[in-house]
Amino acid sequence: VAPSQTGINQLDIYQRLAVDSIESEFPFNSINWVFEVNEINSTIFEGYSQLLGDMQSFAASNNAADPSQLNQIGQELALLLVQNSLEFKNLLEANIYDGNHQLDLSISWQGLPDLTSFSELDINALINALTVHVALSLNESATMQSPLADFVTNYVNQGFLQIDNGSIELLASLQSGNLIVNDESLPIDQFF
Predict the structure, then answer these.
(1) 12: phi > 0 → left, psi -120 to 50 → alpha, else beta; which?
(2) Minimum mean pLDDT among 11-15, 44-48, 119-123, 136-140: which range?
(3) Which of 24, 39, 121, 160 could be disulfide-bonded to 155 (CB atoms 3.0-4.6 Å)?
(4) What is the pLDDT of residue 15?
């Protein structure tokens, strides 16, 4: 956890887990996972700490928690999350079934700073405030030896996954309300 480079009263979280060699009965040989959350408004941590502290106080005093007070704090915290920008980045690389696989996922939430109540929330504004990029690359021969082979074959046949030079790939993005999967634009409203 460190102060964010992007703004005052913001924090960044970075975590990495790497295991270069795994000896197991399972088909995992190695894993590398990098996780980042950036632009976290420090007020969110303060609200979360207050919520946890209030819940612990109620538990320690053997009194039942006041649901309306906890609900109010929870709603204020959720509204603060929706109002402020936030970025998630995940990179997962693994050698499974003797093949290298990679998932790169980034989610950027620009926030809805003018939102004052969840009753004002508009699904289109919510979608437009969200940017998602997904890049998935699976080793074809390893994947086809795995229990996922039938599942993957089904999505290859439907065109959601593509095979390119021994790799099963998916490139998808959601930006400004536009959903693009493997260079093909899909109507987002089919999901709502």
Answers:
(1) beta
(2) 44-48
(3) 160
(4) 95
CA separation (Å) from 177 to 76, 88, 115, 123, 172?
27, 18, 19, 10, 13
Asked whether the CA dihedral 21, 23, 29, 33 is positive or negative, the reply is negative
| CA-based nearest residue to 166, from 142, 185, 183 | 142
In which band, very low, low, confident or very high, does the pLDDT at 62 lie, cut at 50, 70 and 90? Answer: low
Contact 113, 84 (CB under 8 A): yes
- Interior CA angle at 39 toward 35 and 44, to 5°? 100
* Prediction pTM value: 0.82
**Sign of CA pseudo-dihedral 43, 44, 45, 46:** positive
Indicate the residue type of 145. Answer: Q
Distance between CA atoms of 118 and 109, rounded to whole angstroms? 17
